[in-house]
From TrEMBL:
Ranges for domain GHMP kinase N-terminal: 45-133
Pathway: Carbohydrate metabolism; galactose metabolism
EC number: 2.7.1.6
Classification of source organism: Bacteria, Bacillati, Bacillota, Bacilli, Lactobacillales
Residues annotated to bind substrate: Y176
The protein, known as: Galactokinase
Species assigned in the record: Streptococcus pseudopneumoniae
Localisation per UniProt entry: Cytoplasm
Gene name linked to the record: galK
InterPro entries attached to this UniProt entry: Galactokinase, Galactokinase_bac, GHMP_kinase_C_dom, GHMP_kinase_C_sf, GHMP_kinase_N_dom, GHMP_knse_ATP-bd_CS, Mevalonate/galactokinase, Ribosomal_Su5_D2-typ_SF
Length: 340
């Protein structure tokens, strides 16, 4: 599962984009000198944004190019299809124009594109995972400092099953920005007594001890989720390093409970998938992924139970929601690269 592209440099100053996923849009032509957001240009705004910020950073892109794109990551499903397109564009430009790019700088430009070109107040995790990923490794990332560690991910006789609600979610139109604002306000309230910049600096004891400073019950729940999710991440890193998939699965479950009840970003579709997954034989853990409000969940499932798992979860989901989910078996692979 991924996003693929082919490109060739032109002799003029024209960019020509075509996506096999959006055939109805046809070929979209854009002057290299006029890289601005245009709603009618649809998916091409992502590569346009990356090229704009590459130029702004001083990288010389002096010719246009033809760019063909195909991807099998579902759009709007919370699986980072937009971030994959951003990193793909950066690697294409890097090789066409012999740019001297650190991969982390390209990751940052992907985030910059989302925030300042597309207008989505997202973080850097999607671009980081796509740009910095490695085969059979999980990424332990501090998004505040961008320090990271590649943690061995030995799934043994298990696979990652992606469960798509088939309820499209638009990050820009969701409550993602609202949740982020609630957490930022909670930090401001806690700063009355604590010298902190982020909720990630706290532990469970601290958030309980100083909960009286957060004046709104919902903001307290959001803050509690953020703090405890960080603690779960530390425990998950240790579990993977120890090869303890049972503990890792339990942490996945606890994460979803917190996302459902404290952060409140799940909903009927995601909860139905995850709760049903928990009840199946061979499931070590399951939780929603992405920003929530539709999109996808993931489950860690024993290989020999996958078909029964898909049948049981799919049947119950369709009974509850009224339409079928989709399932994909994922592999943990390396980051954006040129294919031979």
């Amino acid at each position: 599962m991924g996003t693929y592209g082919a490109a060739r440099k032109r002799d003029d100053q024209v960019l020509r984009f075509y996506s096999a996923n959006f055939e109805d849009k046809g070929i979209i032509e854009v002057p290299l000198a006029d890289l601005k957001f245009e709603k009618e240009h649809n998916w091409t705004n992502y590569p346009k944004g990356v090229l704009h910020f590459l130029q702004e950073a001083g990288h010389v892109i002096d010719k246009g190019f033809d760019f063909y794109v195909y991807g099998n990551i579902p759009n709007g499903a919370g699986l980072s299809s937009s971030a994959s397109l951003e990193l793909l564009t950066g690697v294409v430009a890097e090789h066409l124009f012999d740019l001297k790019l650190e991969r982390l700088d390209l990751v940052k430009i992907g985030k910059q594109t989302e925030n300042n070109f597309i207008g989505v107040n997202s973080g850097i995790m999607d671009q980081f995972a796509i740009g910095m990923g490695a085969d059979q490794r999980a990424i332990y990332l501090d998004t505040n400092t961008l320090e990271y560690d590649l943690v061995p991910l030995d799934l043994k006789d298990n696979v990652v099953v992606i469960m798509n609600t088939n309820k499209r979610r638009e990050l820009a139109d969701s409550k993602y920005n609202e949740r982020r604002a609630e957490c930022e306000k909670a930090v401001e309230e806690l700063q009355v007594a604590l010298d902190i910049q982020t909720l990630g600096e706290l532990d469970e004891w601290a958030v309980d001890q100083y909960s009286y400073l957060i004046k709104d019950e919902n903001r307290l729940k959001r803050a509690r989720h953020a703090v405890l999710e960080n603690q779960r991440t530390l425990k998950a890193q240790a579990a993977l390093q120890a090869g303890d998939l049972e503990t890792f699965g339990r942490l996945m479950n606890a994460s979803h409970v917190s996302l459902e009840h404290d952060y409140e970003v799940t909903g009927l579709e995601l909860d139905t998938l995850v709760h049903t997954a928990w009840a199946q034989e061979g499931v070590l853990g399951a939780r929603m992924t992405g920003a929530g409000f539709g999109g996808c969940a993931i489950a860690l499932v024993q290989k020999d139970t996958v078909e029964a798992f898909k049948e049981a979860v799919g049947k119950h989901y369709e009974e509850v929601v009224g339409y079928a989910p989709s399932f994909y078996i994922a592999e943990v692979a390396g980051g954006t690269r040129v294919l031979d």
